[in-house]
Design a protein that fits this description.
about 325 residues; 60s Ribosomal Protein L30, Chain: A; Phosphoribosyl-aminoimidazole Synthetase, Chain A, domain 2; 2 domains; 6-stranded mixed sheet; 4-stranded mixed sheet; nucleotide-binding; EC 6.3.3.1; purine biosynthesis; ATP binding; phosphoribosylformylglycinamidine cyclo-ligase activity
Length: about 325
């Protein structure tokens, strides 16, 4: 009796169909530096002309936000989240994202679902000004349940050494500027799924499912516009751990980010009554609360920064200041 790969749970033909469905979309992210075609063994990318280039890389996934996608049968936004979590991180060092690779794993491949997920990855790459140069789709029967997927990504960017942002230039008197989030982004979903069990519940004109699946905002293009005009001393992507854990990552020893909670423009989602079950300290230490990204600049540059962000559709505002102190953040 013979047995095939398909008999063991892996359908190669479905994999070929998946590639065919995404091929033209992926090419839309290519630029003149991409040298490979989809299906190459490795991704080829010309670095271009730099004096002292520093490569900046980052990797991340979407976490249990995927569970919401499974339960609502909406898959076209989680790919954006995957890109966002990677490119926003490397952006914190002033890096221009160059390229992105994804890893998609599942129990049984459905080319319609996988192509929807990659559609989101493509959209994220377009928003993040990066090329989708490759990836891997792994069908793993018996390891993942049928209908469940996991996705992770890897981004590489570049910055001139003299323009690299690492927080070392942050000084007393600098101002912290907040850029709003689009919602929960991709963090705290293990708790969010405990708080919200009915994704069809209506809230503020949308279902809870739609609120939770709102993709993570990608800040690459507006931040690059700022860096063309202003010296940015520090940046932080507000992910898991909220302001409390992420702002200190760009603050030098001996300085402190002084932030009043009252100044934070809390995203409407976090005003849902379900959050009344969560202690205030837990809220601020888990969620972004409406702040997706912060930049730290000299006080004389604040108006310029806010104006540039307004021109790029972002309603940024002053969040706090840098003072002397050993705590690195004082959120009160």
């Amino acid at each position: 009796m013979s047995i095939s790969y398909k008999d063991s749970g892996v359908d190669k033909e479905e994999g070929y169909r998946s590639v065919a469905k995404i091929k033209e979309r992926v090419k839309a992210t290519y630029n003149k530096n991409v040298m490979n075609e989809l299906g190459s063994f490795g991704a080829l990318y010309k670095l271009g002309e730099y004096k002292k280039p520093i490569l900046v890389s980052g990797t991340d996934g979407v976490g249990t936000k995927l569970k919401v996608a499974f339960e609502t049968n909406k898959y076209d936004t989680v790919g954006i989240d995957c890109v966002a979590m990677c490119v926003n991180d490397i952006l914190c060092h002033g890096a221009q994202p160059l390229f992105f690779l994804d890893y998609l794993a599942c129990g049984k491949l459905d080319s319609n679902v996988s192509s929807e997920i990659i559609k989101g990855v493509v959209e994220g790459c377009l928003q993040g000004d990066s090329a989708l140069v490759g990836g891997e789709t792994a069908e793993m029967p018996g390891f993942y349940a049928d209908g469940e997927y996991d996705i992770a990504g890897f981004a590489v960017g570049v910055v001139e050494e003299e323009k690299m942002v690492n927080g070392s230039k942050v000084q007393e008197g600098d101002v912290i500027v907040a850029i709003p989030s689009s919602g929960a982004h991709s963090n705290g979903f293990s708790l969010l799924r405990k708080l919200f069990t009915n994704f069809n519940e209506e809230f503020n004109g949308k279902t809870i499912g739609e609120h939770l699946l709102t993709p993570t905002k990608i800040y690459v293009k507006p931040i690059q516009k700022i860096m063309e005009k202003v010296q940015v001393n520090g940046m932080a992507h507000i992910t898991g751990g909220g302001l409390i854990e992420n702002v200190p990552r760009t603050i030098p020893d001996g300085l402190c980010a002084n932030i009043e909670k009252a100044k934070v423009k809390v995203h409407p989602l976090f005003k849902h009554e379900a959050f009344s079950k969560v202690p205030e300290e837990e809220m601020w230490g888990t969620f972004n609360m409406g702040v997706g990204f912060v930049v730290i600049v000299n006080k004389n540059d604040v108006k310029t920064v806010i104006d540039i962000l307004a021109e790029n559709g972002e309603e940024a505002y002053e969040l706090g200041t840098i003072v002397k102190g050993d705590k690195k953040i004082n959120l009160y």
